[in-house]
Design brief:
Radius of gyration: 23 Å
CATH superfamily of the largest domain: Zn peptidases
Number of helices: 12
Number of domains: 2
Mean pLDDT: 96
Length: about 450
């Protein structure tokens, strides 16, 4: 058999990826209904992928308009699960986040790394193997969800209907692969408030480091606020109005699990208010979220092999006399959400703390033959002998259990997931396509 020209195959199908990238598949409460469970844009992305699968000769199953799947082969089932939803782009981009442009060796736009490109690549890998007549003596099932970035209720619905596979892989993370993921939870915090702040709004999504924060403060001391921001090198602006002073702070968005890649504007703003006016609510918030590892709030943990807890005040609002916040935390195996919640309640004593979402840590043995099959493909193509990783991110691995996340971000490239100006190298996409192609071949050869 002739060697596959993966670059040509990718470019021959690049227009399909461009079209997928152009769909602004962010959760949309305004269009959410029975037909569009997560809003019309996410549904549109799902139906777009459904059409391409059908055009390629796949029979597609639809699960409550939340998930689609397409299978090849018979035997023990292996799922390759991707999500087509993306996080809010936020502001400050140098290009349209939904431009869907592939130019000068780069794929531009929200979802290029997380994870529309790799969702498309695994489709191309199986499409190519089918065209070659490769024997599928296991069932390889492509699965696409549309709400991974919020609750993963989409994939839980799928598993409820379809059951669990023998093994799953999700191309949603880093190469070589992650065999374990920290626990992930979301706290909602609420408190009644009457004080110096008239209005406050910060952040875009719980699992995104807040890139902006603004507050209307009942004060006319513009210079005091300005001096404070300058002394602490906070980026932003101060504007005096008849209603009070608008303080706006600019941070840097990044994935909540990688706080070292971003800067939380919400944490800066609550510290400013706490330090200048010493109000209890904001002093508690400043202590709880003074750093991204829970150290100032005394709920920090660092447990091998998963490492440090991370804590992200992703959204904070003050409206109609109530403060509401949404906090994303990733925690290592060895501590439970119950313990963490009690510690947060202690520091946020004037707040009500609830825990609507919690997924404990997961781990798959690196010696597992399915894991080895995937890792061997990565090593063959990349020449990199690195071992598996532990991830602070959350992927569909949480739903499947016996699952690894694999790519598309290579160890040597910048991670722009959930950040502005997200982009991905077309050359890396070609390399990832070859890895997925060979990984699927290897998975088919795992002895039953």
């Amino acid at each position: 058999m002739d060697r596959v020209d993966f670059k040509k195959y990718f470019m021959d199908h690049a227009e399909g990826l461009r079209g997928l990238m152009r769909i602004p598949s962010v959760f949309d409460a305004n269009t959410q209904c029975a037909e569009y469970p997560y809003g019309k844009p996410s549904y549109d992305a799902l139906m777009y992928m459904k059409k391409h699968l059908e055009d390629a000769g796949f029979a597609v199953a639809v699960y409550d308009n939340k998930v689609i799947s397409a299978s090849t082969g018979t035997g023990k089932r292996i799922d390759i699960a991707s999500h087509l939803d993306v996080v809010e782009p936020g502001d400050g981009w140098d290009f349209d986040p939904f431009c869907g442009i592939i130019d000068e060796g780069m794929i531009y736009g929200r979802g290029s790394q997380d994870m529309k490109t790799s969702a498309w690549l695994v489709f191309l890998a199986i499409k190519k193997l089918r065209e070659e007549g490769y024997p599928f003596h296991k069932e390889i099932r492509l699965v696409y969800g549309s709400d991974e970035e919020r609750t993963m209720e989409d994939m839980r619905t799928y598993v409820k209907h379809a059951g669990l596979p023998e093994f799953a892989m999700t191309p949603d993370g880093y190469f070589p692969m992650a065999v374990g993921e920290k626990g992930a939870l979301m706290w909602i915090i609420r408190a009644k408030y009457r004080g110096i702040v008239k209005f406050l709004e910060a952040g875009v999504q719980p699992n995104v480091i807040a890139p902006y924060a603004k507050a209307l403060i009942d004060s006319q001391d513009e210079q005091m606020i300005r001096d404070y921001m300058i002394s602490r090198e906070m980026k932003g602006s101060v504007t005096k109005t008849p209603e009070g002073i608008w303080a706006e702070i600019t941070g840097k968005s990044a994935h909540a699990s990688r706080p070292e890649l971003g800067h939380n504007a919400a944490s800066d703003l609550v510290k400013l208010i706490a330090d200048l006016w010493h109000e209890t609510s904001f002093e508690e918030l400043s202590k709880a979220f003074g750093d991204p590892y829970g150290i100032s709030g005394e709920y920090d943990y660092d447990i091998a092999p998963m490492g440090k807890l991370t804590s992200n005040l992703g959204i904070l609002k003050l409206q109609n006399g109530e403060i509401t916040g949404y906090v994303d935390a990733r925690y290592p195996y060895g501590v439970t959400s119950d313990v963490l919640t009690k510690k947060l309640e202690k520091v946020l004593s004037s707040f009500e703390v609830s825990l609507p979402y919690d997924d404990p840590a997961t781990y798959t043995d690196p010696s597992d033959p399915y894991v080895k099959a995937c890792l061997d493909a990565y090593r063959e193509v990349s020449g990199d002998d690195s071992g598996p990783l532990i991830s602070g991110g959350v992927s569909y691995s949480k739903v499947f259990g016996h699952c690894v996340s694999m790519g598309p971000v290579f160890p040597y490239e910048e991670n722009l997931c959930h950040q502005r100006n997200e982009m991905y190298s077309a050359d890396n996409a070609v390399k990832a396509l070859e890895i997925y192609y060979k990984a699927i071949k290897n998975l088919l050869e795992v002895s039953e």
